[in-house]
Design brief:
This protein has 466 residues and is α/β, with parallel strands linked by helices. It has helices at residues 114-131, 137-143, 192-206, 210-213, 240-252, 297-311, 330-335, 349-362, 380-383, 399-408, 420-432, and strands at 7-9, 15-17, 28-32, 35-36, 42-47, 53-58, 66-75, 78-88, 148-149, 157-165, 168-174, 181-183, 216-224, 227-234, 257-262, 268-272, 277-280, 283-286, 318-322, 341-346, 366-370, 388-391, 412-417, 435-444, 453-460. The protein has an 8-stranded mixed sheet, sandwiched between helices. The chain binds S-adenosylmethionine (SAM). S-adenosylmethionine (SAM) is lined by residues 292, 294, 323-325, 328-329, 346-348, 351, 372-374, 392-394, 418. This is SAM-dependent methyltransferase.
Length: 466
Amino acid sequence: MKNRSRNFRSRSGRRGTAPRRDPMVGKEVDVRIADIGARGDGLAETAAIDGKSVLVYVDGVLPGDDVRVKLRQKRGDGYGAEVMAVHARPKAHADAKCPHYEKCGGCSLQHLPDDDYRIWKRQRAVQAVRRAGISDDAEAEMLVGTLETSPPSSRRRADFSVICTQDGVFVGYAERFSHHIVNVPGCAVLVPEIVEFRNHCQSFLESLPRDSAGIVKSIVINAADNGLDVVISASAEPDLDMRQGLAELADFVDLARIAWKTGDNPTEPLAQRRVPEVHFAGVAVPVPAGGFLQATRQGEKALTAAMADALAHIPARQVIDLFCGIGSFTFSLALQGDRRRVLAVEGDDTAVRALQYAVGRAAAPIEVSRRDLFRQPLDADDLKNADVVVFDPPRAGALAQCEILADFGPEWILAVSCNPATFARDIRLLRNGGYELQKVVPVDQFLWSAHLELFAVLRRALPAAA
Ligand SMILES: C[S@@+](CC[C@H](N)C(=O)[O-])C[C@H]1O[C@@H](n2cnc3c(N)ncnc32)[C@H](O)[C@@H]1O
């Protein structure tokens, strides 16, 4: 038989064999949605070419929906699919809350009725607890508290992609099923100041010649307590018109600061009208350009309150706050309730400097240390005087640190996580090292999306008395 696979030249110039087209891709099949998966898609099954069952991930559906879908692309162990026709919807879908819902890929779960959404999100926490090794369903259910949800119009950080072409200027989020960017002038999750600034920004870029506007690639905006802090990332340095235009825009909308970043170069402030600041436990902390903030003030408050609640029952003098950022938790750990000494550890230099500055001004009992906790986690000696360790790592989790905590950690650990998968892995490690998971609080700062924050209290089981 003739071999139909075409020879082609790869980018490296070497000859290879073109990947064979997957015969399932493009196929239309009828499915019934069984469940909502971890990323918020409806889950269904269909028969593959070999007759075996494969998973189908469908956007914008509810369990029980009967739909005809087109398989679009291979996705992990199954196929991503798009609804072509609805045969039956036993349960009504909720009306979208955002005018951009149909196009924008940002918050894909607006079609879930409110109660179903809250139950689904809380169940993500219950599943993470099960994956951490607690196989008893009733026990996992009992450990997980009520979902703390941030309201619409409360997200204080936006990371917009920007595309300026002859077709127009787009400042927003990736469209569903595509790399196109959709403008979001009425985004329902961001704080109104950010939405308003996005709209001004789009108009400003539209007023420029396209090749001049075309260097802008993304805009990161943090709503600090005293105004917006904006970082524009671009492929080239700004020309004079761009600099002047952005400085005027900063004036017009009363931005705290606007800065420019070309490639990997350091960020250059274009206009600073005041230093952007946030307050933690009453202490003003300068926000580094593009620095990390908890996504909503309400989410930060819920996490801090859960921490204070746990600490009310823990006699702690010495606390270690790992992956502390600019101190969202550090100041309340040190200054609220019993005054405690805190060692705050963070890898990012700009965050460390901002925190050190605020600690100095507040004369707080906090020592700040810069350290890469992936490569050089705290060891047994570093941990020996701590009563409590708090950690809040990025999405990758705190594997290296948890391996050491499992053997040498203090009696109490308070864990925060923005990724249920790495949360489950890290908590399992700690449980294997002798910690008992006592409580989990799910915190929803990313309304109508699949993202979830988790707070957990762990206590080292004491050896039984002889
Ligand atoms: C989820 S944020 C939490 C920050 C802080 N706890 C808060 O709530 O604002 C994770 C933090 O870990 C820091 N980080 C990331 N990788 C790190 C590493 N390898 N070592 C130390 N810190 C790191 C980031 O800079 C960031 O500040």
